[in-house]
Amino acid sequence: MTETLELKYGCNPNQRNASISIEGKLPVKVLNGKAGYINFLDALNGYQLVRELREATGLPAAASFKHVSPAGAAVYTPLSETERKMYFVTSKTELSELAVAYIRARGADRMSSFGDFISLSDTCDRATAKAIAREVSDGVIAPAYTDEALEILKAKRNGTYCIISIDPDYMPSPVETKTVYGITFTQEHNSFVPSDKDFTNIVTQNRNLTAEAKLDLTVALVALKYTQSNSVAYAFHGQTIGVGAGQQSRIHCTRLAGGKADLWNLRQSEKVLTLPFRKDLSRNDKDNVIEQYLSDDPEIDVISAWQDYFTIRPVPFKTEEKKAFLSSLSGICLASDAFFPFGDNISRAAKSGVGYISEPGGSLRDDLVIAEADRHGMVMCFTGVRLFHH
Fold first, then answer.
1. Which one from 92, 197, 279, 390 is the annotated catalytic residue?
2. CA angle 195, 200, 206 (to 5 degrees)
3. Is residue 66 annotated as a catalytic residue, yes or no?
4. Contacts for 91-95: CB closer than 8 Å, 24+ residues apart
5. What is the CATH class of 2-171?
6. Which residue ranges make up each domain of the chain?
7. Is residue 252 annotated as a catalytic residue, yes or no?
8. What would be the CATH architecture of the domain defined by 176-266+326-382?
9. In the chain, N or C: fewer CB atoms in 10 Å?
10. Catalytic: 230?
11. 206 within 8 A of 377, measured Cβ to Cβ
12. In 3D, which of 212, 164, 219, 169 has the Cα closest to residue 31?
């Protein structure tokens, strides 16, 4: 017996007759709103990600998905005072471990997370629902919701917010299929979940891989498993801080993700944390202004038009100052879904404070890549596992 759920529409509104189905009973229920095709692609990829992070780390996990790749993914680790400020968390903000995981996932790349689909590893509680309620989001998937959380979320988007529950005991078939142009592709499900054994093949002179770095590399690897390839992810403090997705060239992935990681770090600078925003600016407006303020080639000159955004004219953040700030960083982790073919990726990563790298290995130029990592004093391990995702 096949169970089918009709969807709002397919990838685009003109693509009708959209649905999801399964032989047997669907493990998902739409509790509120009406889900679309992309909503479910994000929800099901995101839920696999957070479920595997929970399995790998034992910590509550959350992901913020946009267009079938994570804008951010995180597990619970306590927020520092600086992180609380950059994530708009005040002394009055109600927090739980799951709420902190979502705040981290959303805060990884707030520009890309605008209008995200959220995935949660654990039962959505009131604190997490309140954190979600403050953001512009399309929907959420979780194994369950408390009554208070459900009431809060149902009020979003004038009652149309998409809320999906999924059976936490559901296990998919070990064989998955996909149809393209009327032709069906079949393959085994990618069951790889990183563990300590995947970080034992350290190929650099520096072999001091810390417990904190293992956690961050685990977050990065699981995130990459559900990111459109080619992909590279930077991670720190139990969360991704820059994901470079869907690039044909690996160095472009590394640059893209590195640029996002740099912005995440620059948001913690005193100049950004003390920007004198007008009180009528929303947090989304602030995100946009910060992006322009930190850009060396902004689309909007927020300094010249400061009255539109600030109570007083802010001091510009000069390029040399930003470079000096970034040069002081260290201990950041980087993972790649496939091998680095050239040492330029390592050189770019070093500019963003990377000290730890995980990649499959297997390039004809592995020796040159290792030598570049040694030149920067990095720890690099080869997992032997490629994580392409399409």
1. 390
2. 130
3. yes
4. 93/130, 93/131, 94/126, 94/127, 94/130, 95/127
5. alpha beta
6. 2-171, 176-266+326-382, 270-316
7. no
8. 3-Layer(aba) Sandwich (3.40)
9. N
10. yes
11. yes
12. 164
Active site residue 376: no
Catalytic residue among 230, 265, 288, 345: 230
Question: What is the token pair recorded at 150?
Answer: 């459900």
- Whether 334 and 357 have beta carbons less than 8 Å apart is answered as yes
Catalytic residue among 39, 45, 66, 345: 66
